[in-house]
């Protein structure tokens, strides 16, 4: 795995997992900078390679009145300001072919959402920007099927692909992580575990996705033990009032303690 493909990514020689973390959606400049500042401090202390995550828009919503964003260009400029202020890379989702080139002007990693990872034109458009492409495994896909998504990126002239597991649909309202898939997907590309989305409980009758944030540490620990290359954790200083995915996000105050535990586990695992 070559983390040097990501501009401004620090501590790549620290033999640690890397982290994609931030709010689900960019709600404004102040909140983005506040969250980034806290995570940068923690990851600098623990020498964790860190990429700030924030969606510039949310296209996959249960209801038409759900929050979708503050405006594409406005949110992307905030992501760029986060990067420039703290000298860190950033990642955001894209949903349409036209998003790829636009978002690539502002961020370092383009993420393909799980529901869209089989959309060939979208994956190709992302790959052709030359950015690192983070492919989220579809909730409906096997780990083995992700080799084809990775191959689409490579066939487009880009060898910088990652895979992120965000759980598999189990019935209508729950997600399950099959940890047998991690070594399988690592054969194809560096593999990340999306801890918080794996704990979503979608399709609630209210039209607002639920979640199990009390299980975040359980899932994260299991990921580290099973040698994931990176972790994806959405966090917010006020999850109850976050405009997207608040029900499964980690409170920002709890992130440092969690990461300290995970770094200690990582050191134990790599000692064998």
Automatic annotation (TrEMBL):
This is 3-deoxy-8-phosphooctulonate synthase. It comes from Formosa sediminum. Its main location: cytoplasm. Pathway: Bacterial outer membrane biogenesis; lipopolysaccharide biosynthesis; Carbohydrate biosynthesis; 3-deoxy-D-manno-octulosonate biosynthesis; 3-deoxy-D-manno-octulosonate from D-ribulose 5-phosphate: step 2/3. InterPro entries: Aldolase_TIM (IPR013785), DAHP1/KDSA (IPR006218), KDO8P_synthase (IPR006269). It catalyses: D-arabinose 5-phosphate + phosphoenolpyruvate + H2O = 3-deoxy-alpha-D-manno-2-octulosonate-8-phosphate + phosphate. Coiled coil: none annotated. Its EC number is 2.5.1.55. It is found in: Cytoplasm. Belongs to the KdsA family. Keywords: Cytoplasm, Transferase. GO terms for biological process: lipopolysaccharide biosynthetic process. Residues 15-265 form the DAHP synthetase I/KDSA domain. Gene3D superfamilies: Aldolase class I. One of its GO terms (cellular component) is cytoplasm. One of its GO terms (molecular function) is 3-deoxy-8-phosphooctulonate synthase activity. It comes from the Bacteria.
